[in-house]
Design brief:
- Helices cover about 45% and strands about 10% of the residues.
- It has helices at about 5-15, 55-70, 85-95, 110-115, 125-130, 140-145, 170-175, 185-195, 205-230, 240-255, 265-275, 285-290, 335-345, 345-355, 375-380, 400-415, 420-435, and strands at about 40-45, 75, 105, 145, 150, 155, 155-160, 165, 200, 275-280, 305-310, 315-320, 325, 360, 390.
- The longest helix has 23 residues, at about 205-230.
- The strands form four sheets. Strands 2-1-3-13-6 form a five-stranded mixed sheet, sandwiched between helices. It has a four-stranded mixed sheet with strand order 14-7-12-15. A four-stranded mixed sheet has the order 9-10-8-11.
- It has two domains: about 15-160 and about 325-385, Periplasmic binding protein-like II (D-Maltodextrin-Binding Protein, domain 2); about 165-320 and about 400-435, Periplasmic binding protein-like II (D-Maltodextrin-Binding Protein, domain 2).
- β4 (about 145) and β5 form a beta hairpin.
- The protein is of the alpha/beta class and about 425 residues long.
- It binds beta-D-galactopyranose.
Length: about 425
């Protein structure tokens, strides 16, 4: 399982946030600070899970929570917008104005570190001790939520960002024999779809999905080690290898939809299962959306309506991210928040949530038999000895919020002007300004 292999250890260590996240998660005598109100009458849970699949996962967790906490009113404060684009702005202003929700979704890694350093969330060491949680999570995941020896959040899932979803019939019509295994093959396949079918070669949605595509092309061209190295202080974003990846990115973008920005990730992913687009690169929350039961989910069938593969050039690497829940300082219903964190950290809760969400459990002791189809593959890949790990920059693992925003701004300009040299120089500047 996780942590057994040197490979996995090294990969996680490489991502350990510029050395700021302490490797040791030594309990600190339950020094959880902040307001000790124990109000359990309510809990306001803040996330961006409003779409099919993700909302269904949240609903499953909520139902179990309500069963176990009949006296606590659950308020779902989810704000629409894939990858938290809208939610994070609202959250920032609520935290600034000291009006925090009782618990909010934050990605393990650099994103969480921002909240920790801003003093916005409480350490959870006593909670971990009381609930015997330290041994439930992979040690290396704990490192990603630990700062100066204290643990700050409760991971509920592990998602994979480097996934390619495709429509087998369109590939057949285009004479493409299967999922492309390298970026070069991918470009050839996109060209074939364009020339031989009337379908969209690669569907894209709102701007953030172009950021998501960028991390996939970087990983596909550079490989896990060089990709991971990009997020370390002093990394060379001006290298010819990055130029090559950005040249490929520029080429790939030519095969995407012009009207992309008008839809979020769901619209782009749906185009594949509806037979309108050949390929989509998206995290595995798309699987929850595709296979969830109608009317919310699309009720589609794996292998008939769609197939999956690691995004081109990334087989053997798990580009991971983890949704975790926090205890904000000054949470109005601290008792409710702790009950929610207990639910999110439980084996039962995670096994109800993840099969619907399209993710695998963050805990090590999940019931493997519940993970079918793509999820069985994901479960095996995540737990495979020797699997290489890369952190998703867009989904919070290895870039601070400022770095993330700076890259997004550069990508936004690039989508307008398609100037690859300017994109690279903006990425070089972003790394210089933001890497710690
Ligand atoms: C990610 C998040 C996932 C999923 C996705 C699309 O950032 O970690 O859980 O919600 O955005 O919205």
């Amino acid at each position: 399982m996780l942590g057994r292999t040197g490979n996995r250890k090294t990969a996680f260590a490489a991502m350990a946030l510029s050395g700021v996240l302490a490797a040791s998660a030594a309990a600190c005598g339950g020094g959880d600070g902040g307001d000790k109100n124990s109000d359990k009458s309510e809990v306001e849970v803040f996330s961006w899970w409003t779409g099919p699949g993700e909302a269904d996962g949240l609903a499953a967790l909520k139902a179990d929570f309500e069963k176990k906490n009949p006296g606590t009113k659950f308020t779902n404060a989810a704000i629409a917008g894939g990858s938290g684009t809208q939610a994070q702005a609202v959250l920032a202003s609520r935290l600034q104005n000291r009006k925090p929700p009782d618990s909010f979704q934050g990605h393990a890694g650099a994103e969480l570190l921002d909240y920790i350093k801003a003093g916005q969330i409480e350490p959870l060491d006593s909670f971990y001790a009381e609930n015997n949680l330290k041994s439930a999570y992979p040690e290396q995941l704990l490192q990603q939520i630990t700062y100066q020896g204290k643990i700050y959040s409760v991971p509920v899932d592990i998602h994979r960002s480097n996934m390619l979803w495709y429509n087998p019939s369109i590939l057949k019509d285009a004479g493409v024999s299967g999922a492309p295994k390298s970026i070069a093959d991918f470009i050839t396949a996109l060209k074939a779809v364009k020339e031989k079918t009337k379908k969209v070669p690669l569907s894209l949605g709102a701007q953030w999905t172009a950021d998501h595509l960028l991390e996939n092309v970087l990983l596909g061209d550079l490989g896990a080690d060089a990709y991971n190295a990009l997020w370390k202080p002093g990394a060379d974003w001006s290298s010819p290898a990055v130029t090559k990846a950005l040249t490929d990115y520029t080429e790939i973008i030519k095969y995407t939809t012009a009207e992309a920005a008008s839809t979020d990730w769901q619209g782009a992913a749906k185009a594949v299962v509806d037979g309108k687009a050949a390929f989509n690169i998206m995290g595995d929350w798309a699987y929850g959306y595709f296979t969830g039961t109608a009317p919310n989910g699309l009720g589609k069938k794996l292998d008939t309506d769609f197939k999956y593969a690691p995004s081109p050039g990334t087989d053997g690497t798990y580009m991971w991210l983890s949704d975790s829940f926090t205890l904000p300082k000054g949470a109005p219903h601290r008792g409710g928040a702790l009950a929610w964190l207990k639910e999110a950290s439980s084996k039962e809760g995670q096994d109800l949530f993840n099969p619907k969400k399209g993710s695998v459990p963050a805990r090590k002791d999940a019931d493997k038999t519940l993970y079918k189809g793509y999820l069985e593959y994901a479960f095996n890949e995540w737990n495979k000895p020797g699997v290489k790990l890369a952190g998703s920059f867009w989904h919070g693992v290895n870039a601070s919020k400022k770095w993330h925003t700076d890259i997004d701004t550069a990508v936004g300009l690039f989508l307008q002007n398609k100037d690859m040299a300017k994109l690279q120089s903006a990425l070089v500047d972003a790394a210089k300004n933001d890497a710690e």
